[in-house]
């Protein structure tokens, strides 16, 4: 028995975020951000200034879905902390925006290397059904580790195009919540935004899908943020992509 996609008839392409939509790596990123920021905040002082990073609220509001340095800037700005920008070559120990970003990425890579990567079973089924139905699929992620993650999860063969942080940097594309990376993915697939569906678990990603006037923006709610995803612009919200499949 084959699976039928419950998508609008005009949709001919699917643009997928990675962490939290396809793979169980959002919690890895949240843990790495918390470890990075908590250590930094403890060094800054006591009391409110050292209030720990909230792996649910702060992660969702400031860093989830954004390019890593943008996430550092957004969180520090929310806490009223100013740091030198530094450069991408800064060491992980540097007290700069880029230094914190590097520290976080080193922690993520270590966690992935030690624990591996698991894909959501419902997402794998949906991806397979989309390909079987002839829909073009692209990966759209702010991650620098996308290649390693999809390889580890066995998903690399599923995508006709990938727009990750390396591509965005090379082309000078603004990160989510700007729609640029999704628009570039649609261009690479040869489809109009109105004919493509965006799948995102991050508020910034949903905002990007809405800003790009895509035909469908699907919010994937893994942590109880359904109302926020809808308010940010999701057309529909699901707990798992398997909800968009029906057997026939």
Automatic annotation (TrEMBL):
One of its GO terms (molecular function) is beta-phosphoglucomutase activity. Keywords: Carbohydrate metabolism, Hydrolase, Isomerase, Magnesium, Metal-binding, Phosphoprotein. It catalyses: beta-D-glucose 1-phosphate = beta-D-glucose 6-phosphate. SUPFAM superfamilies: HAD-like (SSF56784). InterPro entries: B-phosphoglucomutase_hydrolase, Beta-PGM-like, HAD-like_sf, HAD-SF_hydro_IA, HAD_sf, PGP-like_dom2. Its EC number is 5.4.2.6. It is an enzyme of class 5 (isomerase). It holds the Pfam family Hydrolase. Its cofactor is Mg(2+). It comes from the Bacteria. Belongs to the HAD-like hydrolase superfamily. CbbY/CbbZ/Gph/YieH family. This is Beta-phosphoglucomutase. It comes from Thermoleophilum album.
